[in-house]
Write a structure and sequence with these properties.
By secondary structure, the protein is α+β, with helices and mostly antiparallel strands. It has two domains: 138 residues, Alpha-Beta Plaits (2-Layer Sandwich); 156 residues, 2-Layer Sandwich (Alpha-Beta Plaits), CATH 3.30.70.660. It has six helices and twelve strands. The strands form two sheets. Strands 1, 2, 3, 5, 6, 7, 8, 9, 10 and 11 form a ten-stranded mixed β-sheet that branches. The chain is globular and about 65 Å long. GO terms for molecular function: RNA binding; tRNA pseudouridine(38-40) synthase activity.
């Protein structure tokens, strides 16, 4: 049985999230990213003897997008040889196109079982994309930004947001920034953000209608791992500071006195539409060491198997 390391991109608007609900759920849960990819892999020819089960590096929520996510899957066919990586990518992406899925596999690398998509990840990078009205009362919104970014009114102080970013620097307990959820295992709330910064952005279509009516930004955050809803809550709290709904002192209290009960109700988690998993980073030397060189193995080319 060969393990394949996959990278993928997707537009998450229509999906209920990355990970299927429950253990051993039916492969046809195609309203989840995981289920849709497993459905594509279950149609390989020759078929995999074992049902494809995707182990994902990051469990994005409903509506969240990914520019670069990753996972691994173990497959074994009746010939007991490896699938050709290039033809596996083409096969899966043809399935996504035919079925109207907003998912694309971008790479496929056979790896040893020592390599694990989630455990070997060194860090994850998220961006939150938003646009701010230049003038009050703007009702015109670029259609190209719909479900791809978050629209904010002109009552937004970028300098306040920039200053408030310092509150999150260093190693912190983020219990305030995740919902109170029951868990079988103890939750580790202490996390370190490697960086959290504001950057100017640009419209998705430069010469589209109404694009000049807005300032474009994104918040970029990197860390080894994040709690459920942590990024959306951190961004929501920063937006509340920038709009004068809470003060920087209020934000510091939320961080310095970590407890889900200390979430300030004047702040709200931002919608999923502006959130992108931008990258999952690995040690390139570790990945190289764990990569199986196809030239040393028998390979089945899926394109030659298509009838």
């Amino acid at each position: 049985m060969v393990r394949y390391f996959l990278t993928m991109s997707y537009i998450g608007t229509r999906y209920r999230g990355m990970q299927k609900h429950g253990i051993g759920e039916n492969v046809n849960q195609v309203d989840f990213i995981q289920g849709a990819i497993e459905a594509a892999l279950s149609r390989l020819v020759p078929a995999s003897i074992n049902p494809p089960f995707l182990t994902v590096s990051s469990r994005t929520d409903a509506g969240v997008h990914a520019l670069h996510s990753s996972a691994h899957v173990e497959l074994q066919n009746k010939y007991d040889v490896m699938y050709d990586s290039s033809s596996l990518i083409r096969w899966a992406n043809r399935y996504f196109t035919r079925c109207g899925h907003d998912i694309r596999i971008t790479s496929c690398v056979p790896v040893t079982h020592e390599f694990h998509a989630r455990h070997c990840a060194k860090s994850r990078t998220y961006i939150y994309r938003f646009l701010v009205d230049k003038l009050p009362g703007s009702n015109s919104f670029p259609i190209s930004e719909l479900d791809r970014s978050f629209h904010i009114g002109s009552d937004f102080d970028v300098e306040k947001l920039q200053k408030a970013l310092d509150v999150f620097k260093g190693r912190k307990d983020f219990q305030t920034f995740t919902p109170n959820k029951k868990s079988r295992k103890p939750i580790r709330y202490v996390r370190t953000l490697n960086y959290f910064k504001l950057e100017k952005s640009a419209p998705l279509i430069l010469d589209g209608p109404f694009v000049d009516n807005f300032h474009y930004y994104h918040l970029k955050v990197n860390g080894k791992s994040f709690l459920y809803n942590q990024v959306r809550r951190m961004v929501g709290a920063l937006f509340a500071v920038a709009r004068g709904r809470i003060t920087e002192k209020d934000l510091r209290t939320m961080v310095q006195v970590p407890n889900y009960k200390n979430w300030n109700p004047r702040a709200t988690a931002v919608p999923a539409c502006g959130l992108y998993l931008a990258d999952v980073e690995y040690d390139p030397e570790e990945l190289k060491r764990c990569t199986i060189v196809p030239e040393n193995c028998a390979v089945v080319d899926l394109d030659n198997e298509i009838e």
